[in-house]
Amino acid sequence: MRRWDFTQNLFSRTMRKQLKTRTMTDLLTALEWRYATKSFNSSVRLTDLQLDVLKKAVQLSVSSFGLQPYKVFIIDSQEVKSAIMEAAYGQKQIGEASHVFVFAHQRQYQSKEVEDLIVKLAENQGRKVEELQPYQQSIDSWMGAMSDEKLETWMSSQVHIAMNNLLLAAATLGIDSCPMGGFDIEKVDDILGLKSEGLKSCLIVPVGVRNDKDIYANYPKTRKSISELFEVR
Amino acid sequence: MRRWDFTQNLFSRTMRKQLKTRTMTDLLTALEWRYATKSFNSSVRLTDLQLDVLKKAVQLSVSSFGLQPYKVFIIDSQEVKSAIMEAAYGQKQIGEASHVFVFAHQRQYQSKEVEDLIVKLAENQGRKVEELQPYQQSIDSWMGAMSDEKLETWMSSQVHIAMNNLLLAAATLGIDSCPMGGFDIEKVDDILGLKSEGLKSCLIVPVGVRNDKDIYANYPKTRKSISELFEVR
Lengths: 233, 233
Prior knowledge:
homodimer, alpha+beta, NADH Oxidase, four-stranded antiparallel β-sheet, 10 helices, 46% helix
């Protein structure tokens, strides 16, 4: 199992003390620990409690205007996993994993969702719905002005945030995962009956426990360097 | 300051014990603690070490094929912050925050980036570059087949993952943030000279410490319910 190497790294014990927190080191440790798992131990099943934590983390995801324009299917049935595996060009992680999360976004902007959001916001903020109507109108006009292509980009982006919450929450629990974007969208939509629900599949994430023999667990991470990624202005 | 209410919630102390970990509780606590900060305390400046941790978390982000098709500008100059604030319709968080992260994605697919990735992968996996050529070709053909619109969706989605790593890392350190997608992209591109670098601004995230008077910190979170979001199959 790969471990964060404090001797080789920016985050020495001294620095951890300076930060006066263990939490961040834990998240960084989790980020280092996780990898795109190529093979799962199919005999290990996640507990309901572990799944509850993963769901809670996805639920708390940030989204544009708070709209959360998606639904998440948790595949438990081996038969459905097999069908999705086939639609994902036979990638075996899907068949082996304890559970498979399928993230689907809405096909169209639904102003009814903004109405529902405004009602909830008013309740949470102790305000009248009428007070929030200018805000409702501004969301409606912002969203309504989007072309189909921009809307698809917006929807996909929101799903990727939620998916990332799943990956990070899983990693901090020592649960393995593998985000997958390469699959036959129409086939997955057919398998889950998404089109009639106004949804379109976007990402598949098998979760479970890695197979000890998965060699990919041992490779160092391949990432752009800090200097390639960042520039101060 | 809003706190995770264990008595009202799924995640009781007993459940935490069952999970045999504090880590996840910490991430959920952080997710509950954070909110889209509407007002920052402009007198508090993040330390270099805090910024290093945030950068490290962004660097470790998951991305499709590991390509990380983006660059992140950390705005420290008050003058540049003011210009960006104006391009973001005057949203004052940008001027008040300690630092402002601007995420920009590539404008076009660059096969040179895949070449670089393959060289790094070969090194990290102890393999010859030639062995990875079929993989390189498959990425190249997958990416090359994308329409401009699909590419934009793909790029934006990758940026949203990295941005989410920033938000979560910040929250676990008790650093506040506010993700913003509503701004004049062309103006921000002009301010930072992004077009000539082949980049396009996508997201702005002011980070720092909340203003104690920001009333938004006290509102309960507004999210879809678990039953609205999830379905088991």
